[in-house]
Design goal:
There is one protein chain. This protein starts with a strand and ends with a helix. The protein has 220 residues and is of the alpha/beta class. It is built from twelve helices and six strands. It has two domains: 135 residues, Response regulator (Rossmann fold, 3-Layer(aba) Sandwich), CATH 3.40.50.2300; 71 residues, Winged helix-like DNA-binding domain superfamily/Winged helix DNA-binding domain (Arc Repressor Mutant, subunit A, Orthogonal Bundle), CATH 1.10.10.
């Protein structure tokens, strides 16, 4: 199996070097490039086509948010994980809305970052629980005008499927938990994406957060 190809984007050279050394110890991971500049990150994605980008937010050139948006436009297969000291829900939402599928605090353990890389490479969304809690709190703390949401068009079963998928479960795991076939899960998933005009798992996570489906992450 080919290793997961990773691009590091952080303007702190010492931190980048530490990440590089840590990732090089994993046989299934390979760092193919690194930079401390947002514009250079987009160019490197075009040239190197990494599987995963570890992206800081506050970087020279263009911000990590804008770089993530541009990466999504130039490579549909590259997955971006925000790796940052910022845990403010505004930053988390901005990165998710820009197209990131992972968000990990720089204070997280090495093992958690490794879990995030492998999870997003498998097509999952990974938001560290401590960060996910701040996002939920941010949504719940908005003013009534900001928090007003359209009526939920989903059935109870579809909501169950959304919640489990947003928490990172595979279709097979959803099927096992709900005692239904994987074909039924995929059918629900197709209707959900059509009803909500979703294009990606990241879109689904944002919807689940906005609808308050993941409140337990804030409580637990």
């Amino acid at each position: 199996m080919n290793p997961i190809r990773i691009l590091l984007v952080d303007d702190h050279l010492l931190l980048r070097s530490g990440l590089h050394m840590m990732l090089d110890q994993e046989p299934d991971l390979s760092v193919v490039g690194e930079t401390g500049n947002g514009c250079e990150a987009v160019d490197l994605v075009k040239r190197l086509r990494p599987d995963v980008v570890l992206m800081d937010i506050a970087i020279p050139g263009i911000s990590g948010v804008e770089a993530t948006q541009r990466i999504g436009a130039v490579s549909k297969t590259t997955r971006v994980i925000a790796v940052t000291m910022h845990e403010d829900p505004r930053y988390v939402r901005q990165m998710l809305e820009a197209g990131a599928v992972g968000y990990v605090s720089k204070s997280a353990a090495d093992s958690e970052l490794l879990d995030a890389i492998r999870a997003v490479h498998r097509g999952r969304v990974f938001v560290h629980p401590s960060v996910a809690g701040t996002v939920v709190a941010g949504y719940l703390g908005r003013s009534p005008a900001e928090a007003k949401l359209p009526a939920d068009p989903l059935t109870d079963r579809e909501r169950q499927v959304v919640k489990l998928l947003a928490l990172g479960h595979t279709s097979q795991e959803v099927a096992d938990r709900l005692f239904i076939s994987i074909k039924t899960v995929e059918s629900h998933k197709g209707r959900i994406f059509e009803k909500l005009s979703l294009r990606s798992r990241a879109d689904l996570v944002r919807y689940a957060l906005k609808q308050g489906m993941l409140k337990e992450l804030d409580e637990g």
